[in-house]
Amino acid sequence: MDNVTHTLVGLTLARTRLGRAGRGSTLALVLASNAPDIDIVTIAGGTSAYLHWHRGPTHGPLGIVGLGLATAGIVWLGRRLFDKRAGGAAASFARLALISTLGALVHVLMDLPTSYGTRALSPFSWHWFAEDWMPIVDIYLIAVLAAGLFFGRASDAMRSQNAKLALALMLLDYGVRGVAHHEAIALAPRAFGPTLPAPCGGDPPASLPVERWPLPPAALPEPGAHRCLVDLAAMPGFLSPFSWGLVAQTSNSYETFDVDLLDARYRRPPNDGEVLWRRTVRYPNVWPPAALAAARAPLTRLFLGFSRFPVVRATIDGSGAATVRWSDLRFAASRGGPTPGLAGGRGRDGGINASAGNFFAVTVRLAPDGRVLDETFGR
Predict the structure, then answer these.
(1) CA count, 13 A, side-chain hemisphere, 274
(2) Cis before residue 214, ω within 30 degrees of 0?
């Protein structure tokens, strides 16, 4: 989730019994609720360094505990140095450590249901995990949390009651999106119609409570195999919890379809005249030899470890040099996905220009003999 939401959650938790641990507890909860995103400092080492560490160890078990203790230490030391108030009991280091660890844990648990995902087991496992329920920014969640903090400020009792109500509505929001996600997946066969192939290996894609990527090589079909279904996903919308971007990953393409659960056509029994599937958008995804060569480049390997639905486009000029562009279809299909923002530049031949770039895409230039001339983030 975005840091505005994480901050609002920290402030809301501070109005529950957690905030009664003593002076410093509110600050500890707010700081800890944002602490896992401290990995942003790795951008100083370039976009490649940031992508390598992004939502990595700071979002894993060791990071949660370590950041909880570090936050508690900062607040405890700062209070002793700068807080000279005599009234009110100060929170002990142990209490600060407990609520700070809880704040960091809540941060990771809120990142997990987003379509962006998180590496929640890092550094023990560098796989990404997600549940695809929530967009990165949920305007309804922000509105509920902000309203809970704004209204009822007259008394401690009202603040506590409103905080509990806001947290209950927050859980309701997650529940509604979770159910809607399940319904969107269930509508996929009807939405895609005859464009949806049979599952690879004859079995439907595994229905796991949490999505995991990158897929192991054994889960991918052999090159040239008969067209089949590898994975099926539903990306959440930004404005409505009932709007979803369906993605069907096949052995040679991606099929996408925008579905609205409130559309009456999906509540009626299907009939022979329905042609909903004609709205399907197809993205070919066949890896030519140039793409296979580009996949060995350092930035591309890093990007393929991050990308859930990598799409490749390759062009060859008159001299035989190739330009290979990789992007992640997740951010095209996710109607509430993040907006790429860092403009990349081109490095010198043979070098890697990763000091700045949009890490939602990678471009690689290859010499006619397959040698990597240049690779950079961005399109």
Answers:
(1) 17
(2) yes
* Cβ atoms of residues 349 and 364 within 8 Å: no
Token representation of residue 208: 């796991």
Does the pLDDT of residue 276 top 80, yes or no?
no
**The pairing of beta strand 351-353 with beta strand 372-377:** parallel
pLDDT at 4 over 90: yes
Question: Are residues 10 and 166 in contact, defined by beta-carbon separation less than 8 angstroms?
Answer: no
Q: For position 331, what pLDDT does the model report? A: 75
H runs (alpha helix) in the chain: 3-14, 25-34, 47-53, 61-82, 93-111, 139-150, 156-186, 188-192, 289-294, 298-306, 330-333
Average pLDDT over residues 153-166: 85
**CA dist., res. 92 & res. 21, Å (int):** 8
CA dist 301 and 295 (Å) reads 6
Following DSSP, what letter does each residue of 235-289 receive, concatenated? EEPSS-TTEEEEEEEESSEEEEEEEETT-GGGTSPP-TT--GGGG-EEEE----H
pLDDT digits (tens, 9 = 90+) for 331-353: 765 444 433 332 233 333 333 33
Distance CA 253, CA 248 (A): 8
- Sign of torsion over alpha carbons 122, 128, 132, 134: positive
